[in-house]
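Forum > Structural Biology > Help requests

Title: Can anyone predict the 3D structure of DNA polymerase III subunit delta?

Hi all, first post here. I have the sequence for DNA polymerase III subunit delta but no way to get a structure on my laptop. I'd be grateful if someone could post the structure tokens.
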Amino acid sequence: MIYLLEGTETYQLDQKKRQLLKKGKTEGENIIDLDASSRTFSLEGALNQCSTISLFADRRAVILSDPYFLKSGTRAAGKKKTGKDNSDLLEAYCTAPNPDTDLYLICRGFSPDRRTKELKVLEAHENESVLIFRFLKLSPRELNQRISEELRKKGYQLTDDALAELKERISDSYTEFLKTLDKMDLYGKKQLNRKDIEHLVSLNPDTNIWKLGDCFLSQDAAGTFRALDTMKASGYQDVRRILPVFASRIRKIYSVVRCYECGLSYEEIRKVTGNYYPDKDLGLARGRSSAYFLRLLSELADLDQSGKRGETDPSMEFDLFLLRNLNHGA
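Reply #1:
Sure, ran it for you. Structure tokens for DNA polymerase III subunit delta below:
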């Protein structure tokens, strides 16, 4: 059998891979793991490994990790001396796979480029010699539903602020939630408060900057400066490191609002901006125009440049920027 495992929810993907290997009763020296992103990798050579007959009748697994031929673009090392295309090689193997060998194509953390010939070959043989498992990012509604189901299934009771803190710290990732669930199982308590969640789940700098931006946009002064202090405590003591990432958060909101003003639908905004949740960002915009966010970006650019020239104290000026716009941001 040929298995394609793809997607950004890597925890589930890894679980499924282990389950399939266990089901196939393949382990140890019967597993051949190849780095399919390497410039020296040859699909023809890998498929030859699959076609080799086992002398001891043991089932084998050939794993192609991060296969370059399922990504966009081309690579010189992928050309065959025989002149055969990767898609032709894959088509031939999908038509007559070795029944004693399982072939795994592992796209961990990404989805294959839908335009590649190789993916089209795999999809053409789906549910015959090929099984495809997709572990994609969940919508906010699906994620909330999964979280509620898993917590209820395991008998966990979280206070409202603990649940809110948990959702914030996992950054809309089901994989991060499942990792947190493992930690909760080891923690030993079924009733958890916010302090428990803060102890169990670290708040990474990316989440901190997101929280800083969201609190600022929501006109939450206390939350804004609490998030800023947390960032400084976690390695962002120099405000000049915060400015570009904070500006990028404002820029994302600006892009969504501008697209919305131009009459684009949510689906069109997702395609143009790459933003999964434009409705959430529009909610944070609170009816403010794109011109308002453009002004903020201009102020941040001036603040950054004056700090680089040594004309102002970036830390003090950023505090003043926040206070000024928190008081008059509506």
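Residues 308 and 314 are 9 Å apart (CA to CA). The first helix runs from residue 10 to 23.
Shout if anything looks off.
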